[in-house]
Design a protein that fits this description.
The protein is of the alpha+beta class. The chain is about 30% helix and about 20% strand. The protein contains five helices and eight strands. The chain has helices at about 15-20, 60-75, 80-85, 105-110, 125-140; strands at about 25-30, 35-40, 45-50, 55, 95, 110-115, 120, 150. Strands 4-3-8 form a three-stranded antiparallel sheet, covered by helices on one side. Strands 5-7-6 form a three-stranded antiparallel sheet. A hairpin with a 2-residue loop joins strand 3 and strand 4. Helix 2 runs parallel beside helix 5 (about 125-140). The protein is globular.
Amino acid sequence: PARVSVPATQATQKAPFAANASRAIEQPAPHGQEGERRTALRGGEMGYQMDGQFHPARNAIDVLRQVFEALTDKDTSFPERFSARPQGRSRRYLARDRDKLYRRLDLCQKYSIQLQSGWWMSTNHSRNTIDSILQLASEVAGLQYGQGLVTHLGD
């Protein structure tokens, strides 16, 4: 069979994240946000961009974890301020104590990870919920979502 070469500017599903990290492109902003531009990523790349640098991620939860870590590194009061805001109906997104994340302790053990700061993050979320959490995190951090923090959670 003939081999097909893919140009370097075209993202592929099997390409490593490091090779894809430089493939951010400028696109016009969505309708109603004229004059602004946002960065979009090609293909099925997962990750986020903050301070002009792209950070690849394995999945949407990894994007959320990395964003929480980065915002905490920038401002150690971020987790406290974020956790003070209203969160989900049946769970918290970020808590100082693991057993405060979910109403059921078995879910706390199964669907949580500890961040480097010692805070706990819940992990049982849909992409839509993760997107909402990231919007809230941007607001708490004083960043404009889609501009100061650009995320790509996959298709």
